[in-house]
UniProtKB/TrEMBL annotation:
It comes from Phaeodactylum tricornutum (strain CCAP 1055/1). GO terms for molecular function: malate dehydrogenase (decarboxylating) (NAD+) activity; metal ion binding; NAD binding. GO terms for cellular component: mitochondrion. Belongs to the malic enzymes family. Divalent metal cations. Prefers magnesium or manganese. This is Malic enzyme. The active site is at Y175, K246. GO terms for biological process: malate metabolic process. Residues 342-598 form the Malic enzyme NAD-binding domain. Residues 152-332 form the Malic enzyme N-terminal domain. Its cofactor is Mn(2+); Mg(2+). Keywords: Metal-binding, Oxidoreductase. A divalent metal cation binds at E317, D318, D341. (S)-malate binds at R228, N484, N529.
Amino acid sequence: MISSACRGSLKSLCSVQLRSNTRQHASLISCNNSPNVKRFSTAFSSQTDGEVLTVGGALSGEEPIHETGEWAGCKRSFMIPIRISVRGTDILLDPLYNKGTAFKTGERDRLRFRGMLPHRIMNIHLQKERFLQALRAEDSNIRKNVMLEDLHDRNETLYHRVLVDHIEEMAPYIYTPTVGQACMEFATRYRRPRGMYFTEEDRGHMAAMVYNWPHRDVHVICVTDGSRILGLGDLGANGMGIPIGKLALYCAAGGIAPHRVLPVVFDAGTNNEALLQDKYYLGVQRKRLKGAAYFRMMDEFMDAVRFRWPNVLVQFEDFSSEVAQTLLDRYRDDHLCFNDDIQGTGATTLAGVLGALRAKGEEVTSLGDQRIVIAGAGSAGIGIAQVLMQAMEEQGRTPEEAKNAFYILDQNGLLGTDRANDLNAEQRVFVRSADNNLSLMDVVKKYKPTILLGVTTVGGLFTGDLIREMHSSCERPIIFPLSNPTNKAECTAEQAYEWTNGQCIFASGSPFDTIEFEDGRVFYPSQCNNMYVFPGLGLGASVCGAQKVTDRMLYVAAETLANFVSKKDMEEGRLFPQLTRIREVSHRIAVAVVEEALREGLATKVKPADANDLDSFVGRKMYFPEYVPLVEKREISI
Ligand SMILES: NC(=O)c1ccc[n+]([C@@H]2O[C@H](COP(=O)([O-])OP(=O)(O)OC[C@H]3O[C@@H](n4cnc5c(N)ncnc54)[C@H](O)[C@@H]3O)[C@@H](O)[C@H]2O)c1
Ligand SMILES: O=C(O)C[C@H](O)C(=O)O
Ligand SMILES: [Mg+2]
């Protein structure tokens, strides 16, 4: 990291206006004192394991590129090179540093691989154009996923640039729904390592093993034990695709630099019979560890990662509901962690429901007046109920009034007091005193819901009869089939609009295309997915050094997301901002989370001066994928 003394001298060294005619942000260290610059991103250099070079003049022959646009008026800017320990042609094989054909002549010389690349020098735009041409020529989504992951393994900067500039197009290939198929085919498609695996055999070694990870400053870990991958069930170690996809979004959507994220599979075995018999399966081919042995292994993992990276944020992802809540309760007070399926989903759905109420022309404070049926009483269903209930209480309802708004069902029907003993503590909060086990159709008939949420993993559960029944007593029903991937959605967008004659307000977990009715009406189905919340939540919690993630942080994240939806979005029936704005959304959510952390006295890394301008504080920390000059790390005397 650059010292403040160096920073001062750099500023004076760099008072030249650098050549600039491209559209990127660059790695800049100055501008901090420029009143004209509202927002700027930290690129790779100031964050890498490689060190920042402290003499700007050493960049002779280089052409630092950055634009005037956002930087207008900022004369004293500088693109910070990074000092790397990798040498010669190894640089071309290191995806964090490799720029492929974009290495310029001076750099090819300086880094000692001149002659190892063809003559022409591309820039990141041409490289991206060429890649997109090839990607778009491919029909199969899984092949597109493989092409993107190959790029990820070759050149992280270009990969993340493709995601940042084309997030709406790329998200379905690197994330739900295609990531589900990528997980199912993980073993047969396995090529190169990415992330870490921890097994029971590693007991006693984990604190040492974490030092095998080559990056010293990890900010976010996404860990799964593969026991509930999307709605696809227990995929064991094949679940690695999920943390990889989530963390790709952390970088592209949340502005966390790629060397600061670590995907992990906590491989405690699998109960998937097919995988236990599969000769190509790559994970631990034993039944899952259970009970104390499982939790002891997790304790060691959590302690090990915190030992090496004391401020690391751990995101629990796709753990089955047998352990998900227990793990969250076990660590949430002492570790910086959250469960995305419980908390992230709850916050995102709250934002979507508030948006839907506004779209209906109702006050958001009418939330507590709604009749909300949640099909699915697992991590997501209960997580959603908890966050919605918290919102009702924030709006002034008593806990009893708030609870009364919910009708929650699992696979045996409505959660009722008669079977309270079979339910966990979080589910018991929502049991109803009558109508134990009532079927979904009967619940809809009897209680006439205004909101129907699906988190069951059962594709097609919302039938035409069910939706028509709901519509018969609610003119504009709010219908969110949230299960992933697409074939697990409780109904499709087309069905929901058709069965309600276009009057429903719809959002789904996986994306659906725009729908045009024959009468000319056009519908834009919204995607209600926790990807709207976790990148910003993680960014905020991590940059401010939050000691823990609190329920109120989730609540402010939801509120911020809901407020981000523009009038135009609403007019078009969109309940969430377009994905093209996801970085702005994450930035705002992060600011709100930092403010909340400060309010709760949990922020450890915000200086008073930064607290006055959290917008810039967060913006400055956001990674933007751009090529940065590289120099070899060696002793230099100046
Ligand atoms: N859109 C999002 O952001 C988002 C976030 C988290 C989870 N999800 C999706 O939600 C689904 C559920 O996730 P989870 O973690 O809660 O899983 P889970 O296994 O913990 O819960 C599933 C629940 O559905 C119930 N169920 C099964 N069949 C049912 C039926 N016929 N009627 C009513 N209930 C039934 C089960 O009893 C269980 O309570 C998954 O498909 C997941 O991909 C989506
Ligand atoms: O992964 C997603 O797309 C959302 C959610 O975390 C899920 O488990 O389905
Ligand atoms: Mg998940």
